[in-house]
Amino acid sequence: MRPSPARLLNILVPVKRAVDYAVKIRVNPQKTGIDTNVKHSMNPFDEIAVEEAVRLRERLKTEVKSIKVITIGPPKSLDTLRTALAMGADAAVHVQHGEEGSAGPEPLSVAKTFKAWMEKQKEGEKIDMVILGKQAIDDDLGVTGQMLAGLLGWSQATFASKIEVDVEKKQALVTREIDGGSEELRCSLPIVITTDLRLNEPRYASLPNIMKAKKKPVETITPADLGLDYTPQLELLKVEEPPKRVGGGKVGSVDELLEKLKEAGITAV
Protein backbone atom coordinates (compact mmCIF):
# COMPACT_ATOMS: atom_id res chain seq x y z
CA MET A 1 0.00 0.00 0.00
CA ARG A 2 1.33 3.44 -0.93
CA PRO A 3 1.75 5.73 2.10
CA SER A 4 -0.69 8.61 2.41
CA PRO A 5 0.62 12.00 1.15
CA ALA A 6 0.96 13.23 4.74
CA ARG A 7 3.53 10.49 5.37
CA LEU A 8 5.73 11.16 2.37
CA LEU A 9 9.10 12.81 2.99
CA ASN A 10 10.33 15.78 0.99
CA ILE A 11 14.06 16.20 1.58
CA LEU A 12 16.13 19.33 0.88
CA VAL A 13 19.92 19.16 0.62
CA PRO A 14 21.81 22.47 0.52
CA VAL A 15 25.16 22.15 -1.28
CA LYS A 16 28.06 24.54 -1.76
CA ARG A 17 30.67 24.92 -4.47
CA ALA A 18 33.96 25.23 -2.61
CA VAL A 19 37.68 25.05 -3.32
CA ASP A 20 38.51 21.39 -3.95
CA TYR A 21 39.72 19.55 -0.86
CA ALA A 22 42.96 18.50 -2.60
CA VAL A 23 43.99 22.11 -3.38
CA LYS A 24 46.47 23.82 -1.09
CA ILE A 25 44.79 27.00 0.16
CA ARG A 26 46.68 30.24 -0.42
CA VAL A 27 45.89 33.86 0.47
CA ASN A 28 45.31 36.10 -2.54
CA PRO A 29 47.78 38.94 -3.27
CA GLN A 30 45.29 41.59 -2.04
CA LYS A 31 45.01 39.75 1.32
CA THR A 32 41.24 40.05 1.14
CA GLY A 33 40.60 36.29 1.15
CA ILE A 34 41.85 33.04 -0.33
CA ASP A 35 42.89 32.55 -3.95
CA THR A 36 39.80 31.19 -5.74
CA ASN A 37 41.39 30.82 -9.18
CA VAL A 38 41.80 27.09 -8.54
CA LYS A 39 39.82 23.88 -8.95
CA HIS A 40 36.40 23.81 -7.27
CA SER A 41 34.05 20.96 -6.41
CA MET A 42 31.15 20.17 -4.11
CA ASN A 43 31.91 20.70 -0.44
CA PRO A 44 32.75 17.15 0.83
CA PHE A 45 30.36 17.32 3.80
CA ASP A 46 27.53 18.34 1.46
CA GLU A 47 28.40 15.44 -0.82
CA ILE A 48 27.89 13.15 2.20
CA ALA A 49 24.51 14.84 2.78
CA VAL A 50 23.39 14.15 -0.81
CA GLU A 51 24.49 10.53 -0.49
CA GLU A 52 22.55 10.12 2.77
CA ALA A 53 19.38 11.55 1.23
CA VAL A 54 19.66 9.06 -1.64
CA ARG A 55 20.32 6.21 0.79
CA LEU A 56 17.28 7.17 2.84
CA ARG A 57 15.15 6.83 -0.28
CA GLU A 58 16.71 3.47 -1.04
CA ARG A 59 15.85 2.29 2.49
CA LEU A 60 12.44 3.91 2.82
CA LYS A 61 11.51 3.40 -0.85
CA THR A 62 8.11 4.98 -1.59
CA GLU A 63 8.06 6.94 1.66
CA VAL A 64 10.44 9.54 0.18
CA LYS A 65 8.58 11.71 -2.31
CA SER A 66 11.38 13.99 -3.48
CA ILE A 67 15.00 15.00 -2.98
CA LYS A 68 15.85 18.56 -3.97
CA VAL A 69 19.22 20.29 -3.81
CA ILE A 70 19.79 24.02 -3.49
CA THR A 71 22.86 26.21 -3.80
CA ILE A 72 23.79 29.89 -3.71
CA GLY A 73 26.52 31.17 -5.98
CA PRO A 74 27.73 32.30 -9.42
CA PRO A 75 26.78 30.57 -12.70
CA LYS A 76 29.47 27.89 -12.28
CA SER A 77 27.61 26.65 -9.18
CA LEU A 78 25.31 24.91 -11.65
CA ASP A 79 28.06 22.28 -12.07
CA THR A 80 27.75 21.43 -8.37
CA LEU A 81 23.99 21.02 -8.73
CA ARG A 82 24.44 18.75 -11.74
CA THR A 83 26.78 16.56 -9.70
CA ALA A 84 24.13 16.21 -6.99
CA LEU A 85 21.47 15.42 -9.60
CA ALA A 86 23.73 12.74 -11.08
CA MET A 87 24.10 11.20 -7.61
CA GLY A 88 20.33 10.77 -7.38
CA ALA A 89 18.61 14.06 -6.47
CA ASP A 90 15.40 14.78 -8.39
CA ALA A 91 15.52 18.55 -8.92
CA ALA A 92 17.67 21.56 -8.10
CA VAL A 93 17.39 25.23 -7.17
CA HIS A 94 20.09 27.74 -8.10
CA VAL A 95 20.04 31.04 -6.23
CA GLN A 96 22.28 33.10 -8.49
CA HIS A 97 24.52 35.49 -6.60
CA GLY A 98 27.88 37.08 -7.25
CA GLU A 99 30.58 36.56 -9.81
CA GLU A 100 33.33 33.97 -9.95
CA GLY A 101 35.75 34.63 -7.09
CA SER A 102 33.46 36.97 -5.18
CA ALA A 103 32.65 36.37 -1.53
CA GLY A 104 29.49 34.43 -0.80
CA PRO A 105 26.77 35.49 1.63
CA GLU A 106 27.23 35.14 5.37
CA PRO A 107 25.82 32.04 7.10
CA LEU A 108 22.79 33.89 8.49
CA SER A 109 21.89 35.12 5.00
CA VAL A 110 22.32 31.59 3.68
CA ALA A 111 19.98 30.20 6.35
CA LYS A 112 17.42 32.94 5.65
CA THR A 113 17.58 32.07 1.94
CA PHE A 114 16.77 28.42 2.54
CA LYS A 115 13.96 29.36 4.92
CA ALA A 116 12.45 31.85 2.45
CA TRP A 117 12.52 29.33 -0.39
CA MET A 118 11.00 26.60 1.79
CA GLU A 119 8.14 28.87 2.82
CA LYS A 120 7.23 29.43 -0.83
CA GLN A 121 6.63 25.72 -1.49
CA LYS A 122 3.09 24.53 -2.17
CA GLU A 123 1.19 22.09 0.01
CA GLY A 124 2.43 18.58 -0.69
CA GLU A 125 5.87 19.95 -1.58
CA LYS A 126 6.69 21.34 1.87
CA ILE A 127 10.11 20.22 3.12
CA ASP A 128 10.13 17.75 6.03
CA MET A 129 13.86 17.21 6.39
CA VAL A 130 16.96 19.27 5.60
CA ILE A 131 20.28 17.44 5.42
CA LEU A 132 23.46 19.48 4.93
CA GLY A 133 27.15 19.28 5.69
CA LYS A 134 28.25 20.23 9.19
CA GLN A 135 30.59 22.84 7.70
CA ALA A 136 32.10 24.08 4.45
CA ILE A 137 35.82 23.46 4.04
CA ASP A 138 36.49 26.97 2.71
CA ASP A 139 35.36 29.05 5.70
CA ASP A 140 34.98 26.24 8.30
CA LEU A 141 32.26 28.17 10.14
CA GLY A 142 29.88 25.27 10.74
CA VAL A 143 26.82 27.30 11.80
CA THR A 144 24.39 27.39 8.87
CA GLY A 145 22.47 24.25 9.87
CA GLN A 146 22.00 25.43 13.43
CA MET A 147 20.87 28.87 12.29
CA LEU A 148 18.37 27.36 9.86
CA ALA A 149 16.89 25.13 12.57
CA GLY A 150 16.60 28.14 14.86
CA LEU A 151 14.86 30.26 12.22
CA LEU A 152 12.42 27.46 11.40
CA GLY A 153 11.86 26.37 15.00
CA TRP A 154 12.63 22.77 13.98
CA SER A 155 14.39 19.90 15.70
CA GLN A 156 18.10 19.69 14.95
CA ALA A 157 20.78 17.02 15.16
CA THR A 158 24.36 18.00 14.33
CA PHE A 159 27.47 15.96 13.43
CA ALA A 160 25.40 12.92 12.46
CA SER A 161 27.21 9.60 11.96
CA LYS A 162 24.02 7.52 11.57
CA ILE A 163 20.44 8.42 10.63
CA GLU A 164 17.31 6.30 10.98
CA VAL A 165 13.87 7.65 10.09
CA ASP A 166 10.41 6.37 11.01
CA VAL A 167 8.10 8.24 8.64
CA GLU A 168 4.90 6.89 10.18
CA LYS A 169 5.86 8.06 13.69
CA LYS A 170 7.42 11.23 12.25
CA GLN A 171 10.63 10.61 14.15
CA ALA A 172 14.35 10.43 13.39
CA LEU A 173 16.94 8.59 15.47
CA VAL A 174 20.29 10.28 14.94
CA THR A 175 23.64 9.09 16.26
CA ARG A 176 25.95 12.06 16.56
CA GLU A 177 29.63 12.34 17.34
CA ILE A 178 30.65 14.09 20.55
CA ASP A 179 33.93 14.43 22.45
CA GLY A 180 34.93 10.99 23.65
CA GLY A 181 32.17 9.00 21.96
CA SER A 182 28.70 9.32 20.53
CA GLU A 183 25.13 9.95 21.62
CA GLU A 184 21.69 9.16 20.22
CA LEU A 185 18.99 11.77 19.75
CA ARG A 186 15.36 10.91 19.05
CA CYS A 187 13.88 13.91 17.26
CA SER A 188 10.49 14.79 15.86
CA LEU A 189 10.07 15.70 12.21
CA PRO A 190 10.51 18.19 10.63
CA ILE A 191 14.23 18.28 11.33
CA VAL A 192 17.55 19.80 10.26
CA ILE A 193 20.49 17.36 10.26
CA THR A 194 24.16 18.17 9.66
CA THR A 195 26.45 15.40 8.47
CA ASP A 196 29.83 14.21 9.74
CA LEU A 197 32.52 12.31 7.84
CA ARG A 198 31.69 8.86 9.17
CA LEU A 199 28.04 8.95 8.08
CA ASN A 200 28.76 7.36 4.69
CA GLU A 201 31.04 7.26 1.67
CA PRO A 202 29.54 9.11 -1.31
CA ARG A 203 29.06 7.16 -4.54
CA TYR A 204 30.57 8.05 -7.87
CA ALA A 205 28.01 9.22 -10.42
CA SER A 206 27.77 6.81 -13.35
CA LEU A 207 27.91 8.08 -16.93
CA PRO A 208 24.22 7.23 -17.60
CA ASN A 209 23.21 9.17 -14.47
CA ILE A 210 25.39 12.12 -15.51
CA MET A 211 23.55 12.19 -18.84
CA LYS A 212 20.16 11.92 -17.10
CA ALA A 213 21.09 14.77 -14.77
CA LYS A 214 21.23 17.16 -17.73
CA LYS A 215 17.48 16.66 -18.23
CA LYS A 216 16.45 17.12 -14.60
CA PRO A 217 14.78 20.44 -13.72
CA VAL A 218 16.81 23.32 -12.29
CA GLU A 219 14.95 26.34 -10.93
CA THR A 220 16.93 29.59 -11.18
CA ILE A 221 16.07 32.49 -8.86
CA THR A 222 17.78 35.48 -7.26
CA PRO A 223 17.93 36.71 -3.65
CA ALA A 224 15.60 39.55 -4.69
CA ASP A 225 12.98 36.98 -5.73
CA LEU A 226 12.97 35.83 -2.11
CA GLY A 227 12.94 39.37 -0.73
CA LEU A 228 16.48 39.10 0.65
CA ASP A 229 19.40 41.49 0.87
CA TYR A 230 22.90 40.01 1.20
CA THR A 231 24.55 43.16 2.58
CA PRO A 232 27.18 41.75 4.98
CA GLN A 233 26.97 42.47 8.70
CA LEU A 234 30.66 41.71 9.22
CA GLU A 235 33.68 43.50 7.75
CA LEU A 236 36.71 41.44 6.81
CA LEU A 237 39.78 43.54 7.51
CA LYS A 238 42.66 41.34 6.40
CA VAL A 239 43.58 37.73 5.70
CA GLU A 240 47.11 36.48 6.34
CA GLU A 241 48.82 33.13 6.25
CA PRO A 242 50.16 31.86 9.59
CA PRO A 243 53.88 32.52 10.15
CA LYS A 244 56.18 29.89 8.72
CA ARG A 245 57.59 27.46 11.21
CA VAL A 246 61.30 27.67 11.81
CA GLY A 247 63.53 24.72 12.48
CA GLY A 248 64.22 23.62 16.02
CA GLY A 249 67.54 22.89 17.64
CA LYS A 250 69.10 20.52 20.14
CA VAL A 251 70.65 21.47 23.46
CA GLY A 252 73.19 19.53 25.44
CA SER A 253 71.96 20.25 28.96
CA VAL A 254 69.21 21.81 31.06
CA ASP A 255 71.41 24.84 31.71
CA GLU A 256 71.83 25.41 27.98
CA LEU A 257 68.05 25.05 27.52
CA LEU A 258 67.39 27.67 30.19
CA GLU A 259 69.92 30.00 28.57
CA LYS A 260 68.21 29.64 25.19
CA LEU A 261 64.83 30.36 26.76
CA LYS A 262 66.20 33.52 28.38
CA GLU A 263 67.62 34.66 25.06
CA ALA A 264 64.16 34.20 23.53
CA GLY A 265 62.60 36.29 26.28
CA ILE A 266 60.85 33.35 27.93
CA THR A 267 61.07 33.24 31.70
CA ALA A 268 59.86 30.66 34.19
CA VAL A 269 56.66 31.39 36.09
From TrEMBL:
| Cofactor notes | Binds 1 AMP per subunit. Binds 1 FAD per dimer.
Which CDD domains does the UniProt entry name for this protein?
A: ETF_beta (cd01714)
Q: Which family does it belong to?
A: Belongs to the ETF beta-subunit/FixA family.
Q: Which residues form the Electron transfer flavoprotein alpha/beta-subunit N-terminal domain?
A: 30-230
List localization entries: Mitochondrion matrix
Q: What does this protein do?
A: The electron transfer flavoprotein serves as a specific electron acceptor for several dehydrogenases, including five acyl-CoA dehydrogenases, glutaryl-CoA and sarcosine dehydrogenase. It transfers the electrons to the main mitochondrial respiratory chain via ETF-ubiquinone oxidoreductase (ETF dehydrogenase).
Gene Ontology molecular functions:
electron transfer activity
**Per UniProt, which keywords does this protein have?**
Electron transport, Mitochondrion, Transport
What's the cofactor? AMP; FAD
Native species: Laccaria bicolor (strain S238N-H82 / ATCC MYA-4686)
Name the record gives this protein: Probable electron transfer flavoprotein subunit beta
Q: Does the keyword Electron transport apply?
A: yes
Q: A Pfam family name for this chain? A: ETF
Q: Which PANTHER family match?
A: ELECTRON TRANSFER FLAVOPROTEIN BETA-SUBUNIT (PTHR21294), ELECTRON TRANSFER FLAVOPROTEIN SUBUNIT BETA (PTHR21294:SF8)
What is said about its interaction partners and assembly? Answer: Heterodimer of an alpha and a beta subunit.
A GO CC annotation given for this chain: mitochondrial matrix
GO terms of biological process kind: amino acid catabolic process; fatty acid beta-oxidation using acyl-CoA dehydrogenase
